[in-house]
Amino acid sequence: MNASPPKVVLGVSGGIAAYKACELLRRFTESGHQVTVVPTAAALHFVGEATWAALSGRPAATETWERVHEVPHVRIGQQADLVVVAPATADLMAKAAHGLADDLLTNTLLTARCPVVLAPAMHTEMWEHPATQENVATLRRRGVIVLEPAVGRLTGVDTGKGRLPEPAAIFESCRRVLARGELTADLTGRHVVVSAGGTREPLDPVRYLGNLSSGKQGYALAVTAAARGARVTLLSANATLPDPAGVDVVHVSTALELREAALKAVADADAVVMAAAVADFRPAEYATGKIKKKDGVEPAPVALVRNPDILAELSAHRARSGQLVVGFAAETDDVLANGRAKLARKGCDLLVVNEVGGGKAFGRDTNSAVLLSADGAEAEIADGPKESLADAVWDAVVARFDKRV
What processes in GO biological process is this protein linked to (predicted)? Predict the structure, then answer.
């Protein structure tokens, strides 16, 4: 017997970004989810009821007093596997934080006993207002996953933080939340920093020393942490992947830029996961013009200097008491022996050891690893989606948080 499709409630509150929820709805329905759309009265000024019904294949639920015998203000939330509100306005979040229920959507939020995801969208000043920030903090303490808004073009000519994340990114976050179910919010209240990608060390204006890291594993770590309720800062080194929903992304290029961004980001972090492939060396000199090839003349050797060891520095100088530091090690031979030696040398709490080369790890959607702990424990993570490896890493981090409580 086939399992019934997951039941998703898509709440839409009254902001101009409501039109983007149509694309989010399409992604849910095309992936087999059963979606009930619950728009507020204000949302219907932006997108009409007929559009929601046509895209979902189901009547939109708009009124508390419709089909009263079915008790919609209770049943919709009770029967859902996930409630996601996109966009979530400042007004909607204020009502949710204070338990107000003056329409069908806010009633649904009160009765839901499933994971709840809010994707805020508003002007920067509204997002940064202390009242909104306190409401967000309250909701997160209760286990609601409030995604960080994106930075970009807002209504009119304004630009800043407050833009609704792209529907594809919201959908990916929701997919991870549904995959975890009731275990979703175990990183609520935590700030985690993740690095991803590979640094590039310029030789001249067109050439650089780099590596093959795609950033997929680091991005998977960021997405899964956000889906588990964390506030996430992602330090992205030259990755070409779209910014994950609900994640603050800082783009860097070189190892020195990554170090500077990391030292700033970890100041209030509970956990730091350095998944980026950082160049050990950089050219001693940078040529301001393209280095030319000359017939009959061999090129001059490229002198290299060491880059700072960011992982060892973060481990040795923890920014706050109890901060956990997780490193990654890419090895081609003597994988476990080299991994254990690196764990001792770096001083981190956990080390994820990957065997690379021969098409393994780099650029793939799957990964396997051995997770080494400073206390001598080790755990093998079987080959599977990079999100699964990411969840295994966060499971280990959460377990250590629990021991320190």
Answer: coenzyme A biosynthetic process; pantothenate catabolic process
Query: Using an 8 Å Cβ cutoff, are 352 and 328 in contact?
Result: yes
Query: For residue 269, what are the domain limits?
Result: 191-404
Q: Is 346 annotated as a binding residue?
A: yes
What is the three-class DSSP state of 7?
Answer: strand
- 215 and 165 within one domain: no
- The predicted-structure confidence for 69-79, as pLDDT tens digits, reads as follows 454 457 788 88
203 labelled ligand-binding:
no
Q: How far apart are the first and last CA of the chain?
A: 44
The number of folded domains in the chain is: 2
Given a cut of 80, whether residue 1 has pLDDT beyond it is no
What burial letters (b/e) apply to 11-38, b meaning 16+ CB within 10 Å?
bbbbbebbebbbebbebbbeeebbbbbb
The reply, when asked if residue 350 is annotated as ligand binding, is no
Query: Known binder of ligand: residue 294?
Result: no
CB neighbours of residue 381 within 10 Å: 20
Task: Supply the pTM of this predicted model.
Answer: 0.81
For residues 236 and 356, state if they share a domain.
yes
pLDDT at 192 over 90: yes
Q: Which residue has the tokens 């960021």?
A: 222
98 and 172 assigned to the same domain: yes
CA separation for the pair 174, 190 (Å, rounded): 19
User: What does the pLDDT look like over 79-122, one tens digit per residue?
Assistant: 899 999 999 999 999 999 999 999 999 999 999 989 999 999 99
Determine, yes or no, domain membership for 1: no
pLDDT band at 368 (very low <50, low <70, confident <90, very high): confident
Residues 213 and 311 in one domain: yes
Residue 2 known to be catalytic:
no
Convert the pLDDT of each residue in 246-302 to its tens digit.
899 999 999 999 999 999 999 999 999 999 999 999 999 999 999 998 888 888 899
Q: Rounded CA gap, 269 and 232, in Å?
A: 9
Show the CA angle centred on residue 24, arms to residues 23 and 28, nearest 5°: 115
- Of 157, 183, 209, which residue sits at a domain end? 183
Residues 132 and 255 in one domain: no
Q: Are 280 and 256 in contact (CB under 8 A)?
A: no
Determine the pLDDT at residue 227. 86
